[in-house]
Structure prediction request, 914 residues.
Amino acid sequence: MAEFKTITKPVMKKDAMQLVTGKPVYTDDIINQDCLIVKLLRSPHASAIIESIDTKIAQKVPGIEAIYTYKDVPQVRFSNAGQTFPEASPYDHQILDQRVRYVGEPVAIIAGESEAACLKAMKLIKVKYQVLEPVFDMHTAKDNPILVHPEENWRTLSYDFYKSDNKRNLVSHEEDSHGDLEKAFAECDEIVEHTYHCKANQQAMMETFRTYCEIDTYGRLHVISSTQIIYHVRRIVSNALQIPKSKVRVTKPRIGGGFGAKQTSISEVYPAFVTWMTKKPSKIIFTRKECQIAGSPRHEMEMKIRVGATKDGHIKAIDLYVLSNSGAYGDHGPTTVGLAGHKSIPLYTGGMEAHRFTADVVYTNIQSAGAFRGYGAPQGIFALESAVNELAAKLNIDPIKIREMNMLKEGMHMDAYFHEDATACALDRCMEKAKEMFDWDNKPDCVDLGNGKVRSKGVAMAMQGSCISNLDVGSATVRLTEDGGYLLVIGAADMGTGCDTVLSQILAECMDCDVDDVEVMSADTDFSPYDSGSYASSTTYITGMATYKAGMKLKEQILKISALKLNKPIEELTMESKEVVAPDGQSISLVDIATASMCFNDIPTTVTETHTSPVSPPPYMVGMVEIELDKETGEVEVKDYVGVVDCGTVMNENLARVQTEGGIVQGIGMALMENVTYTKKGAIFEESLMNYKIPTRLDMGVLRTAFESSYEESGPYGAKSIGELVIDTPCPAINHAIYNAIGKFLYEVPFTPEKIVMAQDE
Amino acid sequence: MEIKIKLNGKLIKEDVDAGTLLIDWLRAHKCFSVKRGCETSNCGLCTVFVNDKPVLSCSVLVARANGCSVTTLEGLQKEAEEFGAYIANEGAEQCGFCNPGFMMNAIAMFRENPDPTDDEIRAYLAGNLCRCSGYEGQLRGIKKYLQYKKGE
Ligand code: FES
Ligand code: FES
Prediction:
């Protein structure tokens, strides 16, 4: 493998020093503070029709600029999901609707000079609801006579793929299979069959949803928002307000965390509507409570799985049915569920003879779900990996051995992964390395510590994708700057993951220059070339390749200018880091080329390239965990977590490591504490960070990570992806460790102390 | 009511609404490093110093800081740069939104206990949530910074 100059190195993030010194770089730091404050009155009911809504008295509160209800907004439906055309998610939202579908749904938009005025006015709005019977149980939602979306103007752009049908409460249905399933199961000696359950998870990014809007010099709507998807937001705002897309400009400053939360347009349409109507600047800042009850959490999913193997541990067949709860709206519903199957089953491509994956996604009257790191894969992998660990236990085969026997290896054809080939796969090496780092073979399954506690170990594997194949588009514009460096302009959104820096490294590698010679600008729909946005782990793989292509193209342009200036045939010239040289030793510096390009020149030194991919090469991971479990209280403490990742070429050692650590800790939160429960009326109980617990630095033990790289030819310098993969292993690995501790597997995350105590008593 | 506060070394005399929270007052005075992440005193993002002691500015009224000196990261730029470089060198700043509060509390810890153990670091900073980094990189940065300080 080639030696790299810049990529792979632990380069400091380009914005790092600004961030650590607390500079004003986020949405609410950079806007005109003298703007209207926007607040939302929200529904106390899970399902109701607004019979009447009276804002007359509220309007009179001093400082109130406007109050809007469903009567004031365009009566059209759109999707809030940030997805490429033809959007998979149904067009089921209105800015405000006469029907409310979950507790917390906006009922009125209040805009005023101060928060106090808005809150005062909020109390004075009189709403009469006709309360309807809600649908809460996802098991009975499909074909239930009570409909979440009975309206006639509901529509889908993707019926052919997803069979979405509002008259059945069906957000989508999907089927995929290969081989003769029943024959394969008939040949199995042992079959594990269970139903697993993953509750919703809150994103809990530290910066809540927020958006500022103003009218610009040209009378257009300028939206400054904490978003991962500038171009999709532009379309969504245009759809919602029924104004041309060209009238909307979307800018993303620094984002205080995303994880997919900001791949849905949660906060944008409200200030957009206020500003468009009043022509005054306005902002909305979601409270933490609003994020918890009206955000975009992980889809609750139930996985019914059957896994069959022969006595000697040959896994022959996997059958998975997933029921996913999309909540009141279909944002990301049709697409998340697919990953539960497509990103789990192929892990066992080794000897698998048949598989079936079926899924239903339903509407219910709870908070709508969205895109959260992993996007359905954590749920599917939890079920499959737990089942395989149970299978290994029943067959009395070492859980590592059964994986080594059956796992996907490089070069295999993946029937369960869109019939792609595993072109770059070091899953086997990840296992080898993890085993060695963890000292798996020398650690007993379980040791009694003599104080009521036991110490035990667990393992799981995972995979993800590197983009949405045949769909995602990434672009990069690269310009030669006057001082012989480069400006890189992208539409991808760095949400802290460091893609501004990683893409700069790719360009620096390509141009044989220092990362400091690259300036980066992102992201603004007026200036950035089109990019689907930062999601599906795709930025490095897709936008990275666009950056590479743009760099190569710019090199050609530079050589063209040099050929003219040096009066030499272009084929003879070579570009070295800061100059172009001819075989006779003549040369011209990049600074001189840049200067020459500005005088009597018609060769452009700004180029834009676009990339897309017909494949989505998976990254892979092995996670091993050691826990201490208190048998009395059911408390689990993570002591040691080893994560070994194959993300292709590691683009930036530091950033990849921190991604891995951050993902593992989120996964630990999902496994042990993050819980969403509802009152009888359908209100979310955990509406703050007081009762929705996310891991603190006391909850994670020691994390140890390593990389075993494969080389993916279709990615920039061999890269695949890392962002989402790393959240996938903790749930099944910790479940395995719990089994080793108490002799029982659990079937529902989070594994709370109560569940562990109860499982022991069963 | 009228208050007198020394904000990052500068004396400010001003009439304020008695119910104003310190965090809102600070942001109104362009101390944008001070962030809000919750309404329940659980995240630590809003940490500032009042008379050199770390407090959660979201749960203190500005009136309570009357007569005190208040320090935000804007007033500690030299220390922020020095220590922050160690966090940045680990790539542990990620989205950065939790950073100002984390930096403030870490600086408070260094002043109180210049030689903490790993467990003491974890305990002192337990109230500073970070959803991105997984904390381990922050710990590496802190330890390398302390190492450097010892050698100084
Ligand atoms: S804002 Fe969360 S503790 Fe102050
Ligand atoms: S870096 Fe994003 S919350 Fe800490």
